[in-house]
């Protein structure tokens, strides 16, 4: 008869299964000897038992010492988790380890205590004040789980406040992965550091250089970056050797000259290094030669974090009032902000972007349908300094002409001149010399033509000349200074737009004569005579492939406007404003054309109805963009039902 345990008579087999085998999982694997079962609580019980023995200082057979503080432990436990202890305990006799403690150099008592807590309890409590000591102890003992726990704590503790400390720690202790992660965090959250120069002082040289080399710091002025860099150099004497590298990452030409002199001229780190002095001289030279700055552009003059903005410059609005405002919007929201004003009202002018400078050429200051008073003035806007200056004027006064950038120079083609006469001359502006020169002549005198460049070649189409609209297409080869005829447009037109997207040149809208105009009696009448019954809008859009000299025509639902401005930005075309022959009114619409989908969409409205204006894309700094976005927006249009109208395209 089997003995019974008191009090167990009523307990079933199920009770004993739950009590004794509750930690055993179901069948895991069948083997030749039977079935292998695993316990899901055995490791916890083992760890709990070892922790209890350690806390009671029971059966301990080795002593670790750090900073004079001794910690009793078990050799078998330490050897199972520490490569260093495994090697040490197997190389030395047990009697030797029992008699004297194992002294750990460069390890703090608190750090060792935290690491042993992980060994015996499976967890450790860390803080930024203690993590480096714990990591040093884990490194000394080669306890990988403790090292991973410390590194994980540092990774999840990254913040603008802790990032410099973690970068320094990763660099000192040799953890490149953590260093890279902290650098990536620094780049994402660098603005918090840069706005508080005190936080920059704890950065190591590599971190500071990477920070100053970033391009996405556009809402922090270059003056602040320079001041922060100089404070970093002055913070410790041994940092003077990094002056050359640090200053090379600051875009000194973007720092105002007075700030350059105040901040750098008396700096010992600069005066002692000829390379630093040379960088200062080059930056000051850039400032004292403002007319030549477009030819002096390079990485050090590139705006950080520049955002492309659509600009609308000048034009003619209701009541034929000539405008001098410059409006700007980002391509995402199309909420117009007032960027500033030109020196005088202007319309029938041209705008050209060269090295992210805005050039405004020619046009008329006062409304005059006969074009008797055009101007040859050229004004330049610099978004780096937000300033306008007047540069050398064109050789000929022009209105209703075309201007473009070709081989790093500005080119002005034909147009109307004094007393309404038509011109065929072509002028070129060299920004390195601030001088215009006559290069060649267009095949005919013409106004209201349009142009676009493709792979260094200028294409001019259409226009108005001799009392009729034209369908010609000419290309200008700058090396030969020669115009070459190409396949003409399918429909003659003027007051249209041309723009290049990738390898395609688009010709959009405009107007044409549906019957010959009466023979004009003067040049002025030939240029500006307007009889509504003879003009019609061109609703067909044509696109041209230069590689095969071929036009393709697509018909869009009526745009119904001319005298608009067309510009390209990436894969999209933008049409702003214009005039309707049908309603005899000016238009505020902003339309976009997606070249991939071949669809027009109404994107919004201009702050006011405009014709004979210019639209272009200019990159501005994040600092300026933030200032613009803080403006109240009286020009944001209402949300009419037609704001999402899509105009279909039929092949």
Automatic annotation (TrEMBL):
Residues 60-128 form the BTB domain. The keyword Protein biosynthesis does not apply. InterPro entries: BACK (IPR011705), Beta-prop_ATRN-MKLN-like (IPR056737), BTB-kelch_protein (IPR017096), BTB/POZ_dom (IPR000210), Kelch-typ_b-propeller (IPR015915), Kelch_1 (IPR006652), SKP1/BTB/POZ_sf (IPR011333). Pfam families: BACK, Beta-prop_ATRN-LZTR1, BTB. Keywords: Kelch repeat, Repeat. SMART domains: BACK, BTB, Kelch. This is BTB domain-containing protein.
């Amino acid at each position: 008869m089997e003995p019974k345990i008191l009090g167990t008579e009523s307990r079933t087999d199920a009770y004993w299964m739950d009590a004794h085998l509750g930690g055993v999982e179901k069948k895991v694997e069948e083997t030749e000897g039977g079935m292998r079962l695993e316990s899901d609580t055995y490791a916890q019980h083992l760890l709990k038992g070892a922790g209890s023995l350690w806390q009671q200082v029971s059966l301990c057979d080795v002593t670790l010492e750090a900073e004079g503080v001794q910690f009793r432990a078990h050799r078998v436990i330490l050897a199972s988790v520490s490569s260093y202890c495994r090697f040490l305990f197997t190389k030395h006799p047990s009697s030797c380890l029992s008699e004297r403690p194992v002294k750990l150099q460069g390890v703090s008592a608190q750090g060792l205590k935290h690491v042993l807590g992980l060994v015996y309890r499976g967890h450790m409590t860390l803080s930024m004040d203690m993590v480096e000591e714990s990591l040093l102890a884990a490194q000394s003992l080669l306890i990988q789980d403790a090292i991973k726990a410390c590194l994980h704590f540092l990774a999840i503790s990254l913040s603008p406040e802790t990032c410099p400390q973690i970068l320094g720690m990763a660099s000192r202790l040799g953890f490149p992965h953590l260093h890279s992660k902290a650098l990536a965090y620094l780049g994402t959250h660098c603005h918090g550091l840069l706005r508080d120069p005190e936080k920059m002082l704890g950065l190591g040289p590599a971190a500071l250089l990477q920070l100053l080399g970033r391009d996405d710091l556009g809402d922090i002025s270059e003056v602040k970056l320079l001041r922060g860099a100089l404070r970093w150099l002055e913070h410790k004497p041994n940092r003077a050797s990094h002056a050359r590298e640090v200053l090379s990452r600051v875009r000194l030409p973007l720092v105002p000259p007075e700030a350059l002199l105040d901040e750098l001229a008396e700096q010992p780190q600069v005066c002692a290094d000829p390379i630093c002095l040379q960088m200062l001289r080059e930056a000051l030279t850039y400032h004292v030669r403002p007319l030549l700055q477009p030819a002096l552009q390079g990485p050090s003059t590139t705006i950080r974090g520049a955002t492309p903005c659509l600009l609308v410059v000048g034009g003619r609005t209701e009541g034929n009032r000539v405008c001098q405002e410059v409006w700007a919007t980002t391509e995402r929201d199309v909420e117009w902000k007032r960027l500033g004003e030109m020196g005088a009202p202007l319309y029938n002018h041209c705008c050209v972007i060269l090295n992210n400078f805005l050039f405004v050429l020619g046009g008329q200051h006062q409304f005059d349908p006969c074009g008797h008073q055009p101007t040859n003035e050229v004004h330049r806007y610099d978004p780096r300094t937000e300033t306008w200056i007047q540069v050398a004027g064109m050789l000929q006064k022009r209105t209703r002409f075309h201007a473009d950038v070709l081989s790093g120079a500005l080119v002005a083609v034909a147009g109307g001149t004094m007393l309404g006469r038509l011109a065929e001359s072509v002028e070129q502006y060299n920004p390195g010399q601030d001088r215009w020169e006559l290069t060649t002549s267009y095949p005919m005198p013409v106004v209201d033509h349009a142009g676009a460049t493709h792979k260094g070649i200028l294409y001019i189409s259409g226009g108005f000349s001799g009392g009729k609209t034209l369908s010609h297409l000419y290309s200008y080869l700058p090396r030969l200074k020669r115009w070459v005829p190409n396949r003409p447009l399918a429909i003659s037109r003027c007051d249209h737009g041309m723009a290049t997207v990738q390898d395609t040149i688009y010709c959009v809208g405009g107007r044409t004569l549906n019957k010959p105009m009466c023979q004009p009696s003067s040049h002025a009448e030939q240029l500006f005579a307007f009889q509504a019954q003879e003009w019609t809008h061109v609703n067909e859009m044509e696109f041209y492939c230069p590689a095969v000299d071929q036009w393709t025509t697509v018909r869009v639902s009526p745009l119904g406007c001319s005298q608009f401005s067309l510009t390209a930005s990436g894969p999209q075309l933008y049409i702003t404003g214009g005039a309707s022959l049908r309603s005899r009114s000016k238009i505020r619409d902003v339309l976009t054309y997606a070249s991939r989908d071949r669809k027009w969409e109404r994107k919004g409205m201009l702050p006011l109805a405009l014709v004979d204006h210019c639209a272009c894309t200019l990159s501005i700094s994040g600092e300026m963009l933030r200032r613009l976005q803080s403006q109240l927006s009286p020009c944001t249009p209402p949300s009419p039902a037609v704001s999402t109208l899509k105009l279909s395209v039929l092949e």
